[in-house]
Amino acid sequence: MAKGAMDSSTFQALIDKIHQETTSSEKKVEILYSCRGFYDSDQAARILHSYANPADKIRVLRILEPRLCQMTCREGREIINAVSIHNDKLIALDCIKRVLSDYRSKLGEEYILSAFPFEADKYRAMQILQTVNSFVGDYVAAGGHQGYAALGGLYTQARPMVPHLYGSVANQAQLIPGHGKIEVPPEAQPGVVPSIYTGHPSYAYPADRSYDEDRGYPGNSSLGQSLPGDYPKGAPPLGYHSGAPNPTGFLQLES
């Protein structure tokens, strides 16, 4: 579930409470720690500007790290610029790197690198951005790495393999997990709307015969249906005083 930023009225009350606390910097940090909610980039930057001590800014960044909403690199740059010390800017980037949505794009990298004036800091910032996820699965392996299977067989999971047996290298690259066409399992399409009641018979199949229709015993038929034809085609009458032409059921028994 996506995180929703705190509404403006509640956030303004939080900022006012932080500004009104002038007795101790420790209490100003505790106010933010005890407040619940999530913050977007503008709100996080305003919170950082409310603290003057650089050590308090780092503590605030650690508190805000699990409470930040998704943001772009352009918005994340405002949080980095709210920190004055250059080494602390790298700590700020490490805190917000997991919520950056476009850090893999070239434009997103340029926005992040523009917040660092020194070349060494830019290089370290690129290293921090590369720790968010791994790109190992995006490259095709060299191939030829075999492992032992059961009964003396061999198997290999490295690509590309022999193109004559496994197809072209491009087709083999599409078989890497996370690449190629998304395989969706087939689903039944009966063409009818399923019942909202779990115990109701399925509409996708013909209605089953009832117990009376399947047995056809005299006296058990539903209303509007006549009994089967005359005996011996149908069943004999079952009354106490009733009889039948052939009670035994054999037509030629008495002849």
Task: Please describe what this structure looks like.
- The chain is mostly helical.
- It has a domain at 8-133.
- The chain contains eleven helices and two strands, in the order ααααααααββααα.
- The chain has helices spanning 8-20, 25-34, 41-49, 54-64, 73-81, 86-96, 106-113, 119-129, 163-166, 169-173, 211-215; strands at residues 146-148, 154-156.
- It has a two-stranded antiparallel sheet with strand order 1-2.
- A hairpin with a 5-residue loop joins strand 1 and strand 2.
- It is flat.
- It starts with 7 loop residues before the first helix and ends in a 40-residue tail after the last helix.
- The mean pLDDT is 76.
- It holds the Pfam family DUF4476.
- Residues 204-255 are annotated as: Disordered.
- Residues 42-129 form the DUF4476 domain.
